[in-house]
Design brief:
Chains A, B, C: One of its GO terms (cellular component) is plasma membrane. 3 copies of one chain form a homotrimer. Chain A has about 500 residues and is mainly alpha-helical. In chain A, about 70% of the residues lie in helices and about 0% in strands. Chain A starts with a helix and ends with a helix.
């Protein structure tokens, strides 16, 4: 009985200090959520209006056929993008064995906040009409895009931040995203429909800087939880596959109607297919025994979509798209294998999901490909379609070479704003008021979530045992057999 | 060896009386399925026809462009609704640890039945053309909507009913749904495109009455299974996220073409986003240590979609939508925390999924919001679009205030039919012929499903051990170490 | 200590010979992937062009409205098909307890390869315009369709083949698929929009022949892994439900615009619903204690989609569709119950996923239904729509009866090419250079994938123990209690 008590105590001691006062969200999270939402509602009330395709009066004031409403051109793409944001990003991050709730749940929270805040910020910078922000399906897609950028940054700090930190990061990042987007798309006339620069490069380097500032020297105390188990990898594959399938919709969602949307989807489709073969090849070659690594498959196979984010709407040709996708897959796996450890050890950048390999480098590659493709654009190839893809080239205000230069400049600006912004926001998030988890409890859901398995109610003890025994009967059986053998050997020896 | 036998026997005794004669579906289920399907086929053969947009001859008889076919206006929305019905509802209910097969599987069965039966019932009440029911993409959406209502009721009785009971419930509920829908939409001219009343309020109060009549005083014998485990909660999040993402398509699926579909999707999008922030805030504030509760996130975050089901197509504005969504999230979490225990303890309503909090109260809220918004409608705001949203107001047969009154009356009628219908159907389901599970085996898949883990074939015993050992090697190792320590201590003590 | 060593050794001996030299993919897989992708890129560079709806210049050269672009008619269906290929097929096969990575991952790899190769092969046979292959959304759907056929064959050999074998199979199967499709659709004028013959029958009998040639007499050495566990069945249900929901899009994806797409979706919807009820009924009646079998639900419920693949676009009527679906469900469950064991024991066809029951027999049924429906076509029923469905009948070059004959002949040709092709490719795959897994390690992910659970790094031992103890605390507790009881009994007896 003494021994029994000892053993049982040892098990239960694990349970203590799970509920640290510092990480208690009882007041912090509700206050943050309510204040943010009330501010959003007030700002929407004073600033936001239906656009003419959404407003009952406006739409019926002008003569249109119903099928000309932008809704029918973009809503299916919008829904695909929406799935990528909530299922794609959410489940991609469930690969961690004890952070599935946090991955899907915090993804859900910050996405729901960001899309509202992005509507305001993007509307403020480039959607004002007579003092009002006009919204419709295109602004919804843009808000989801901006949200995607925040979720990329979330990938870098996954498991090491409190929900309040994440909401705070979202407030700043959405704002800076809108500033950068305004400079690029509105001031410079950059083309970036799929967001290689505005979404991926921006989100990645912003997130990397934040995680750099939030560097935890003792993170290896949570090392054992910073990895996957069998079923968590399968959940993550749900995210991967949805991102992969719907990326053609992502890149084509806000390109011009007609051939442009069609072409962008096609280019992305082939880029991703080529990227996938490169990923499988590279994954096998870089492992010591030729086994495929789920981390590579889950992430690098998507780099092909990132890398044609800028050039996808251009006359890149399927041939060009496949070359770009192929290169993106190779770069991305090499990044996971060789660059990530260096970033962590030398530069102290702890990048949980490896966003540098999936969004950072492929985003930069995509920007460069976009600049080159733009510089090579000719009327011979684009014909009258030039006005859709490069309006400034079509109306003669810049030539193609200069458009290429603008694209390259845009990359530099994006990197600058992302790095600087990330540094500043990182320092803000370091303030000791956000309830960040201790080093010993990173990558652990039970810090912020009720996790039923770990705390069964006392009065159900007996039933719980029975469930376990019925669920794990064979383990139990084996154990018993082992005990028997063991004791038999013991008797034999004595 | 004697001890070994004893221990093994103890394990296996659990297996007995799993296969109760009463719950045996060997004949009952096939007979029910076959008779129902044959009746359906005969009725379809005598009553159902393609509508003019689906029929080869009819469509080509009139002069149309192909893109004017309703298919292109509604099919993407239909598919989103379809995903909500089969993946959304199905996986949302997999949160129970041992009822995943039943959740997805019975959801699948009763949905496949209901959508056929609903086609007939809805067609009979408001789709007859010259003695024939005309069907096309709009009738498919309506059939899925009606199915949704049955699945809401399923949520209340989840885990406590046999498949035959569920099919029987579906037969009656679909019929009453069609009656109620006919009274509201056809007789009174109520507007309810997203079904706050017809789908959510009706399904919820019907289901609550059924579960009230099927009250089990000894349900706590299955209490240990009436909860989630880590991975079952992740599966449920798949359902939640799909419902959340596609709710804009749900509410806009059968609104008028053009600005109406566009506006409804937009309103729902912002309502849901606001609802999500309210849910996270309320979940943290109502828990004793500030931890988020998966039950709230999985359910209450969706209340915003329910609550704009009626008013979503109206000129509610994003501002109005967000206020409604925000309120719905708060009400829903409070319902889970404070009202559900009261319903169970005082009113003896055992509501497995908490449908009162997700569909009941938010549905009523949505009906009220719809009535108020309708009463406030002016030509100044709606312009020529009034004819789409409120045809009776546009043609002058009622004024806006009266339309509001009709909306309010419709809520009362819906509640009346749902409660009365649920009571009667509950008594029908109480007949002791349906093979309902005993109190000790509720929330348990192995009653109606082959569950491989629990009954490995005898001749594979050795292999099974090996799999378990290889899958759970570390548990085994630890156990052995513990044994060693244990015996060592034992020897030391003796 | 001696005993401890013994026990530990026994556990770890399992780990040896996991990394067999023969199955090592370190060089084979990268070389295969890279060479294939480079060949694809070169061929795309020399042969492939945007079609006129995707090309910026071509589209703007002719006068069109943007909404007339085929993109808006087919892209939503394309995305649904894409989900079926990657999520549907991928997750359907995750039912195996230890082959989830291989199911989703190899599905991903061979699909990404096949869709590129299919673009070329199908383009070569029936998409050449002036020496160039023209591509757009329709060719993307066709490439996905061809990929589907390869994935059906993959289902037969699942768990028993290396990725190189699968890629090799895909190379040949895609080629033969394109040949068969060319003979049917282009030479004979067969109608098969949903691919009952070209996709399902072809893929099934091809795969069955391949697995026949690859027969493993000692496969029962891996028998214990050739089954499902609780959560793997839930993952598989994700695949099932997506296939089920999106099958209306699959069958209607490449039918003519307007009423044809509309009608095909409708027919498939009702066929699947009827099939589902038949499946549940048959599953209960064929099991000895009336319990539903997940294998049937996951597979047979889909047979209704396969069986209306040919006739879905015709004037089959919902009545006809439901009869076909009902029959398909019955046939499919009977196949699983009675035919599959015979195929395995007598004909030595080891069909892992039972593709003969889901794709083989229902595909043949679909072809027959198509032939009969075609033979019965009259202008009275089709009107001007005859030109869309049966152009050869409309222009008088064949009569309806002859069209029916052509359909029946096409089934025979498809079966011939599939069986012969499968035999030859089976022998190719038997060459001992592909790194096929040994009989003892079939259905096992760790042969080709890094599986974290099974090989934790040594230095994390202690942490790993802690995770396990915290995750499986109650198992541990029970074990300890048992030990205590055990030792107590032991003491008592001695």
């Amino acid at each position: 009985s003494f021994v029994l008590t000892l053993v049982l105590k040892w098990f239960f001691c694990l349970e203590s200090n799970m509920t640290d006062a510092a990480t208690n969200m009882r007041l912090k999270l509700p206050i943050t959520c309510f204040i943010l939402e009330i501010i959003l509602i007030i700002l929407f009330g004073t600033l936001v209006q239906y656009d003419y395709e959404t407003d009952a009066k406006e739409w019926h004031n002008t003569s249109h056929q119903d099928y000309e409403n932008d809704f029918y051109f973009r809503y299916p793409s919008f829904q695909d993008v929406h799935v990528m944001i909530f299922v794609g990003f959410g489940f991609l991050m469930t690969f961690l064995q004890r952070y599935g709730f946090g991955s899907v749940g915090f993804n859900f929270l910050i996405a729901a906040f960001s899309l509202q805040w992005a509507t305001l910020m993007q509307g403020f910078f480039h959607g004002m009409h007579g003092g009002k922000i006009h919204i419709g399906v295109e602004s919804m897609i843009n808000a989801d895009f901006c949200t995607g950028s925040v979720l990329i940054s979330f990938g870098a700090v996954l498991g090491k931040t409190s929900p309040i930190q994440l909401l705070t990061m979202a407030i700043f990042e959405v704002t800076l995203f809108a500033v950068n987007e305004f400079i690029l798309l509105s001031l410079l006339g950059t083309k970036d429909a799929g967001g290689s620069m505005t979404i991926h490069t921006f989100g990645a380097y912003f997130g990397l800087m934040v995680t750099r500032i939030l560097y935890r020297p003792n993170l290896d105390k949570s090392k054992h939880r910073n990895s996957s188990v069998y079923h968590s990898d399968l959940f993550a594959m749900i995210g991967t596959v949805y991102l992969w399938m719907f990326w053609p919709s992502f890149n084509s969602a806000i390109t011009a109607h007609g051939d442009d949307q069609h072409r962008t989807a096609l280019n992305t489709y082939y880029s991703l297919a080529a990227c996938t073969l490169a990923t499988y090849g590279m994954s096998a070659i870089t492992s010591h025994d030729g086994k495929l690594d789920m981390v590579h498959i889950q992430n690098a196979a998507l780099a092909g979509g990132v890398a044609v984010g800028t050039a996808g709407e251009m006359m890149l040709t399927p041939f060009g798209s496949m070359i770009v996708g192929f290169m993106a897959g190779i770069i991305s796996v090499l990044g996971f294998k060789f660059l990530s450890p260096i970033l962590e050890d030398k530069l102290k950048i702890q990048d949980t999901c490896g966003i540098h390999n999936l969004h950072g480098m492929p985003g930069v590659l995509g920007a460069i490909v976009g600049a080159v493709t733009a510089a090579l654009a000719t009327t011979d190839v684009y014909g009258q379609g030039m006005a859709d893809v490069f309006p400034a080239v079509a109306d003669g205000s810049v030539n193609a070479t200069k458009q290429g230069g603008i694209q390259a400049l845009s990359l530099a600006i994006t990197l600058g704003i992302a790095v600087l912004g990330g540094l500043i926001v990182g320092f803000v998030l370091k303030l000791p008021v956000f309830g960040t988890p201790p080093d010993t409890l990173c990558f652990e859901d039970s810090v912020y979530w009720e996790v039923s398995l770990m705390r069964p109610e006392r009065d159900h003890r007996v039933q719980v045992h029975f469930i376990y025994i019925s669920n794990h009967k064979h383990v139990c059986e084996i154990m018993c057999n082992i005990c028997v053998i063991y004791v038999a050997v013991f008797i034999f020896l004595t």
